[in-house]
UniProtKB/TrEMBL annotation:
The name this protein goes by in its record: 4-diphosphocytidyl-2-C-methyl-D-erythritol kinase
Domain GHMP kinase C-terminal: 192-263
HAMAP family xrefs: IspE
Pfam families: GHMP_kinases_C (PF08544), GHMP_kinases_N (PF00288)
Residues spanning the membrane: none
InterPro entries membership: GHMP_kinase_C_dom (IPR013750), GHMP_kinase_C_sf (IPR036554), GHMP_kinase_N_dom (IPR006204), IspE (IPR004424), Ribosomal_Su5_D2-typ_SF (IPR020568), Ribsml_uS5_D2-typ_fold_subgr (IPR014721)
Family statement: Belongs to the GHMP kinase family. IspE subfamily.
Native source organism of the sequence: Tranquillimonas alkanivorans
EC number, as in UniProt: 2.7.1.148
Binding site for ATP: 90-100
Major enzyme class: transferase
Domain GHMP kinase N-terminal: 67-121
Keyword Transferase attached: yes
Amino acid sequence: MATEAFAPAKINLTLHVTGRRDDGYHLLDSLVVFAGAGDRVSVEPARDWSLRVIGPRAEGVPEDDGNLVLKAARLIGGVPCAITLDKHLPTASGIGGGSSDAAAALRALHALDGRPLPGDTLPLGADVPVCLSARPARMRGIGERLDPVPDLPSVSLVLVNPGVAVSTPEVFRLLSTPDNAPMPPELPQWRDATALADWLAGQRNDLELPARTAEPAIGVVLSRLAETEGCLLARMSGSGATCFGLYADAVAADDAARALRELHPDWWVEACGLA
Ligand code: C5P
């Protein structure tokens, strides 16, 4: 019997880069949420560890130790398993696909036979700890400091990727001032999607500008999203190129997604809620 776990897309509603460590890693202050769109990971006991990647976005995804899923499996250990990754999210796209897959593999293996989760998953990648919780959080440090944000209003999203892969180290390298203001010390409680979007409009993703320099298609995506009816906010997630639009309800998000697909049939466009 296989055990399955969902690997939701990770969305940085804000991403403030607040400094740079001596080892080159950047200090962040980011409001992270998880989307209803994502990959699926299933695990089944087997003679040896293995990984098979299937699904609409499987092409080019490694099935060897280059995949974070197998690195995570080796970290948690225990009875070997055959792992299947059903890939729906675009890779190298700022929504934590690889990190979320690795975190889902850990959750599935833990659910299978109760093997303990590793205490420190940060060495797998800066986004893995937040993806392991898969709950809205304020993420600080380089990803190790997590504070839950439990009371988010209901909001709908449209995720858009123009089909370009962006290199995270390259985007950080292009960031001219790695020392920006953090978010306010206390986050407010937002009564609805509009209040959340209004507050977010006063915050930033500091990687948006360098990512747009590396990949101008991101600017086109942001303009197209902002032009859709009912879009409360359009912003890039992580180091890009995936951008999100916020909408008050699923009908508005579905309509916007349909309009964007008509304009740009080659883009990846997904309407969803929060996970
Ligand atoms: O940890 P992860 O593999 O996600 O990071 C990829 C690269 O992105 C790092 O090697 C580093 O160049 C950059 N990065 C950074 N600061 C962070 C996260 C990532 O500079 N907080």
